[in-house]
UniProtKB/TrEMBL annotation:
The keyword Repeat applies. Belongs to the PPR family. PCMP-H subfamily. One of its GO terms (molecular function) is zinc ion binding. It comes from the Eukaryota. PPR repeats lie at residues 137-171, 238-272, 339-373, 440-474, 475-509. This is DYW domain-containing protein. Signal peptide: none annotated. Keywords: Repeat. One of its GO terms (biological process) is RNA modification. InterPro entries: DYW_dom, E2_motif, E_motif, PPR_At4g14850-like_plant, PPR_rpt. It comes from Populus tomentosa (Chinese white poplar). The keyword Transmembrane does not apply.
DNA sequence: ATAGGGTTAG
């Protein structure tokens, strides 16, 4: 594999040596310059008027050609002082001199000063300079609008643009792109529309810079049809026009159309540059088309752009999203000082592919290098934390957030609610929820999903009513949360009712909602109702819907309907092990051993193997993984003694294991020995011998708990007086005093 | 005399 990717080797330090080779921006003078004749009066004037801190002498001798043979022109002199190497102190000094010497040469010098201040990021300094000038002309107005929109102060940019019109200064072809950029960044569609009208009235209908700004504006505001209309009227399209419309389609969830326009562009003689390739790569990343993405990668190399930082980020996202996280990491490692966006791309790439530990590791590395994360970094790291399911890790992250600038960030706190819920503490999730002052629909929905995971359906519905009282409208995710909560709690009629009220809020049910309803009905044993529901769906039932039906058939041993669902699943999703396992389990529960064997043969033919089961328990901040019959732990002997002791106490308490169907159940962990060797039992035993009495044990499983273990753990919780929290593949079980929070409804 | 547009993480 490494051989097929020769582009990953990088000559040492090439990225940086290229910068060193970049020529300094000096002016080339004609050979044989005339002799230097600077009038004595000028030198005297300069000496009396300038402080040494400006180091003017050096400046003169460096630029003396500018003054040769001509009388000293102060305005030209000032203009030449304001070059790119200017510092903030110099800006103020020059401005002071302008006032003191009474040299008012019109707005252009101030405009130049403001632009230079903007270039070096001195936004407030630029504004101060602007404010001192009483009667700004269009150059000066443009300078301040541009300064604000370049540095992310979009509201200020729009405000200054509006004030310019109050001052009766007509905008020109340079004003529009700046204010349009501000409008698209916010986004402020209404303001953008007004600007569009002004552009029309001022006759900039064929200015390509202005029109590109409009394309970007409508694309960013989701008005892709309008963006395309403006693009369609453009006669001389530049690479920027094409990039704007391509990225517009890519950002509005139409990557295929974006790619079609790119291929259209390739028929013209406009050559893509690196920004265009970034947009195209994003589209291929969205559709997870690695093959075409690789061909763009080839383009990148051919054009000699393989060391462009931003293209490396795009390539990293592409390979990571397509599952090649190792390749992505090689790109990441090539760069000595990755930007924040680069770190975020790598972390989220890991999270998307289930490499949660690597993601957390990278987050820690970032912290150790004192790189400041942003809310995206933190949100992705929380997602990793939720995947692992470690409550300790969630607490650590929470503590970190509470001391950071993200303490009051709504998006981060929403991620924290989700993380706490997925790490087993619905109470901590609620605590975070309660302290958020202005809850938006995502915050409410996250909490409802959290209750759903823990089977607290009533709480979820109460929250829904509270949300409506607070005047917040639900969205489609809200209903996913509610329906999940209902199906996990057996609230059939409540869920059914909520599903039918989605239309009242103008929300069209998606696959997930239909799947929830099928699950809701099916699990409660209303299999015929569920089947009728599927048959009358307005959209084609997909994998999730048939999967829910099959799983309901397994619980209620409805073989014929289950076979029907399985048949659909095998044609829709032929290489997913889970469906075969479910069907096999259905046969096993009905004691159809021949059929079980047939499914196993079918799986073998397709080269499918069942997933290995494992359980994870966290002791003193360390995650310990167990598989069935696992003897690898250093304290293995003690663990097995504890397992046997538990088994003995279970029998004494009258527990009767139901072995037969479970032993043939492919979903669960096969072992030649006894059922009590299942991984969660080992994890529980290890937890019991490693923690003080009364400590809650928290276990995460990759599969669903088997019937036998579920029954056993209920009793164990009573025998050892411990609360045991188990996260299985789809939900939480809280075992306490011989009962489980799921009410055996799972 | 002065200056402008497009991109990547979630």
């Amino acid at each position: 594999m490494a051989k097929s990717l020769p582009f990953l080797t990088r000559p040492p330090n090439k990225v940086f040596s290229f910068i060193a080779l970049c020529p300094q921006p000096f002016k080339i003078r004609p050979l044989d310059p005339p002799p230097f004749r600077f009038p004595a009066s000028t030198l005297k004037f300069l000496e009396t008027h300038y402080s040494s801190s400006l180091n003017l002498t050096t400046h003169f001798y460096k630029n003396k050609d500018d003054y040769i043979g001509s009388t000293f022109k102060p305005d030209k002199f000032y203009a030449s002082l304001i070059d790119d190497s200017i510092h903030k102190t110099h800006l103020n000094q020059i401005y002071a001199k302008l006032l003191v010497t009474g040299l008012q040469y019109g707005g252009f010098l101030i405009a130049k000063l403001v632009n230079k201040a903007s270039n070096i990021g001195e936004v407030s300094c630029a504004r101060k300079l602007f404010d001192k000038f009483p009667d700004p002309d269009v150059f000066l107005w443009n300078a301040i609008v541009r300064c604000y929109s370049r540095h992310g102060f979009f509201g200020h940019a729009i405000e200054m643009y509006a004030r310019m019109q109050v001052a009766c200064v007509s905008p020109d072809g340079f004003s529009f792109p700046c204010v349009l950029k501000a409008c698209s960044a916010l986004p402020a569609l209404e303001m953008g529309r007004r600007v569009h009208g002004q552009i029309f009235r001022h006759g900039f209908e064929s200015d390509v810079f202005v029109q590109n700004g409009l394309v970007a504006l409508y694309a960013k505001c989701g008005e892709i049809v309008r963006a395309n209309a403006v693009f369609g009227r453009l006669v001389d399209r530049t690479i920027v026009s094409w990039t704007s419309i391509i990225s517009g389609y890519a950002q509005n969830g139409q990557p295929i159309e974006a790619l079609r326009i790119f291929s259209e562009m390739r028929k013209t003689n406009v050559r893509p540059d690196w920004i265009a390739l970034v947009s195209v790569l994003r589209a291929y990343t969205d559709v997870e088309d690695l093959e075409h993405g690789k061909s763009i990668h080839g383009c990148v190399i051919k054009m000699g752009l393989e060391y462009e930082f931003d293209l490396l980020i795009s390539l990293t996202s592409l390979y990571a999203k397509c599952g090649h996280v190792m390749v992505a990491r090689l790109f990441f490692n090539q760069v000595e000082n990755p930007s924040l966006i680069f770190w975020n791309a790598m972390i989220s790439g890991y999270v998307k592919n289930g490499y949660a530990e690597e993601a957390i590791e990278l987050f820690r590395l970032m912290k150790s290098k004192n790189i400041r994360p942003d809310s995206i970094t933190v949100t992705s790291s929380f997602a990793a934390c939720a995947q692992i399911g470690s409550l300790e890790l969630a607490r650590w992250m929470d503590e970190y957030i509470s001391m950071s600038e993200f303490r009051n960030d709504v998006i981060v706190n929403t991620a924290l609610i989700d993380t706490y819920a997925k790490c087993g503490s619905v109470d901590m999730a609620r605590f975070v929820f309660d302290r958020i002052p202005d809850k938006d629909v995502v915050v409410w929905s996250a909490m409802m999903v959290g209750y759903g995971l823990h089977g607290q359906g009533r709480e979820s519905i109460i929250l829904f009513h509270a949300m409506r009282q607070a005047g917040v409208s639900p969205n489609d995710v809200t209903f996913v949360g509610l329906l999940t909560a209902c199906k996990n709690s057996g609230l059939v009629e409540e869920g059914w009712d909520l599903f039918h009220r989605m239309g009242d809020y103008g929300i069209e049910p998606r696959h997930q909602h239909y799947a929830c309803v099928v699950d809701l009905l099916g699990r409660a044993g209303h299999l015929d109702r569920a089947y009728n529901f599927v048959m009358n769906m307005p959209i084609e039932p997909g994998v999730s819907v048939w999967g829910a039906l099959l799983s309901a058939c397994k619980i209620h041993r409805h073989v014929t309907l289950g076979e029907c669902a399985a048949e659909r699943l095998f044609s829709l999703d032929p290489y997913n092990t889970g469906h075969y396992v479910q069907l096999s389990n259905l046969y096993a529960s009905s004691r159809l051993w021949d059929c079980v064997a047939k499914v196993r043969v079918l799986m073998k033919e397709k080269g499918l193997t069942k997933h290995l089961g494992y359980s994870v328990i966290e002791i003193n901040g360390k995650l310990q993984v167990f598989q069935a019959g696992d003897k690898t732990h250093p304290r293995s002997k003690e663990i097995f003694e504890e397992v046997e002791d538990l088994e003995r106490r279970l029998k004494e308490a009258g527990f009767v294991p139901h072995t037969e169907s479970v032993l043939h159940d492919l979903n669960y962990e096969e072992t030649e020995e006894t059922l009590c060797n299942h991984s969660e039992r080992l994890a529980i035993a290890y937890g019991l011998i490693s923690t003080p009495p009364g400590t809650t044990l928290r276990i995460t499983k990759n599969l669903r708990a088997c019937n036998n273990c579920h029954a056993a753990i209920k009793l164990i919780s009573k025998l050892v007086s411990r609360e045991i929290v188990v996260r299985d593949a789809s939900r939480f079980h809280h075992f306490k005093d011989g009962a489980c929070s799921c009410g055996d409804y799972w």
